Amino acid sequence: MLFIILLAPFFSIAEKENETSTDLNVVAFSSRLLQYQEEGENKGPTIGILNALLKETEFNANVSYMPWARAFSIAKNTPNTLILSMLRTPEREDSFHWIIKVSQAARVFISLKSKPESYVETMAEAKNKLIAVILGSAAHKELISGRFFRERKYLYCF
User: Fold this and answer.
1) CATH classification number, 2-103, choose in 3.40.190.10, 3.30.70.60, 1.10.579.10, 3.40.50.720
2) What is the pTM of this model?
């Protein structure tokens, strides 16, 4: 499940006095399925949810798009930072305040159309294929947890 989350120090901003608006730092990776920028305008279903939250809370925020690892690091280490679309995992559970579910995550395997021998229809078939995944990502941790790969010989991490 993907969530909009907020870091714990967020609550310190409620104590500021004599301010008519409160600014949040919002970080995100660009994804056409979730949130992205087009001609200077933020778009996507997660942006709609963010805008509704901002309106309800009367906070102001600008979304900064960046690679996932940088967005995660900033959200984890910078007070008053909200990150869009992060998988909720046991390792992350206590480090963030989880606001709202924005979508259900799904694992998919893709291959080149020109290589029909690489096409995967079942998980059993996928176990015999070379799988590329981002090192340290939720998908990587899930694959090596024993539920999918017991050996790393078919797992390529980058």
Assistant:
1) 3.40.190.10
2) 0.68
